[in-house]
Amino acid sequence: MVQLRKASHTQMKHWRRHLHQHPETEFDVIDTAAFVVQKLTEFGVQVHQGIGKIGIVGQLTKGSSTKAIGLRADMDALAIQELNQFSHKSLNDGQMHACGHDGHTSMLLGAAQELATHGDFDGTVYFIFQPDEEHGAGAQAMIDDGLFERFPMQAIYGLHNMPGMPAGEMAMNSGGVMASEDNFKIVIKGRGGHASQPHHHIDPLVIGAEILLALQTIVSRNIDPEQQAVVSATEFITDGAVNVIPSTVTITGDCRSFSEAVQDLIEARMAQLVAGICQAHGADHEFEYNRVFWATINTPHETQAAGKAAVALLGQEKVDLACRPKTISEDFASMLRVKEGCYAFLGNGVDSVGGCMLHNPHYDFNDDILETGAAYWVTLAQQELNLSA
Ligand SMILES: [Zn+2]
Ligand SMILES: [Zn+2]
Q1: Do the domain assignments include residue 1?
Q2: Whether pLDDT at 238 is above 80
Q3: Quick one: 186 and 256 in the same domain?
Q4: In the predicted structure, residue 389 carries a pLDDT above the cut 50
Q5: Which of 163, 189, 292, 319 sits at 20 to 30 Å (Cα–Cα) from 2?
Q6: Is the backbone of residue 319 left (phi > 0), alpha (psi -120 to 50) or beta?
Q7: Does residue 257 share a domain with residue 132?
Q8: Are 186 and 123 members of one domain?
Q9: pLDDT surpasses 50 at 258
C-alpha cells in the first residue's frame, strides 16, 4: 500500500484551504491555473497550458514504455455565497468551492508531487486540470483543443468526493454511473381572450395540462423497465390573468438517463406528444430539447483497474465495486465518450463536516480524505504503468 509522506498531507491541506479561500468559476480560473502551473513546475513535471482556453496538462514520463494514462481533476468553483464561518472561508464574494474541486485539484497535485519525486513507474502520466466542469463545457473544450491527440493515453480516470459516504471509502460501477442531463422548453401558442367566452379562443392552459400529463407516460409507458430515466416538468408559465384566458403557455423541464438511446427516445416521444396534442386542439407550438451533459459511462476494463487500485489501497470492505448510479451529472462524461476510463467516488464523510451535501452554502471538502485520494492516484498510476505499488 502506498504511504504518502507526512509532509505531503500537511502541504495538500494547505493548498486545499488556499484554493478554498480563492474560488474562481467557469473558464475564469486564472489564479487557480497559475497556482497549479507553479506547483507542477516546482515538482519537475512538464507543463502544457492553455488547453481548452485555460486547462492544464502536466506530463511526467519515466522509463521507456509508451503506455500512458490520464488522471483528471476539475478546478472551478460555483456562484454561491458561502455561509461557513471558518478561517479558510471564501474571500471572493458570491463564489465558493461548494463541490470540492479545491480538494480534487489538491489531491491530484499531491499525486503529481509523489510520482515526480518518489514514485517509480514505466510510461507517462498526464495530470489533467480542467476548467468549467459545473456548466459542462470544460471537458469538451479540452477535447476540442486536441487533448487526446496531443497527449495520447490508453485510459482516463476521474474522482469526485461524495458527502453521505463514509470518509475515505470508495465506490464505482461499470457502465452508467452518473446521468445525462437534458433540458426542454415547450411553448404552446393558442388564442387568448375573455374568460367568459372560451368558445372564441384556443386555450393553451388546457392544452398545457394535457401535455403535462402526457409527459408522465414517457418513462412509465415507453422506456424499458430495466432502463432508468427521469422526466420532470419544472415550470408552467402563462400570460393569463384571473379573467383572461392566456395566449401562451411555456413548460420547461429536465430529463435524466443513462444512455444516448434513452435520451433519443425521450426527445422523440416528447416531440410527438407536443405536436400531436397541439394539433388536435388547433394550437401552434415550439419545442426545444437541449443536451447539457452526457451520461457518465465507465468502461469495464478500466473500472476493474480502478477497483483493483482502490482495494489494494483500502481493503475490500471499504470499496463498493458495484455502486448504484446517481442521477446527478458530470462533464467527465464527455471524456468517457471518446476514451476508455472510470469515474469513481471518494466518501467525504457522514458527519457535520463531510456530510453536508454538494452545492450547499455550508459544504466543505473534508481534508482527512486528501491523502486517500492522492494515494489512490499514485496506486492506480503505478499499477497501470507496470510497476506494482
Ligand atoms: Zn458540482
Ligand atoms: Zn463537482
Answers
A1: no
A2: yes
A3: yes
A4: no
A5: 163
A6: beta
A7: no
A8: no
A9: yes
* Residue 160: strand pairing partners: 345
* 16 Cα–ligand 2 center, Å: 15
**For range 54-72, the mean pLDDT:** 97
Residues 160 and 271 reside in one and the same domain: no
Helix runs in the chain, H state only: 6-21, 30-43, 101-117, 138-144, 147-150, 204-217, 260-281, 300-314, 332-338, 370-384
Asked if residue 353 has pLDDT above 80, the reply is no
SS3 280: helix
User: Are 164 and 222 part of one and the same domain?
Assistant: no
Q: pTM of the full predicted structure?
A: 0.90
Distance 331 CA to ligand 2 centre (A): 9
Residues 98 and 28 placed together within one structural domain of the fold: yes
Instruction: Measure 331 CA to ligand 1 centroid, in angstroms.
Output: 10
Q: How far apart are CA 110 and CA 43, in angstroms?
A: 10
Tell whether 189 and 172 lie within a shared domain: no
Average pLDDT (204-216) is 98
Neighbours of ion ligand 1 (CB under 5 A): 99
One domain, residues 172 and 187: no
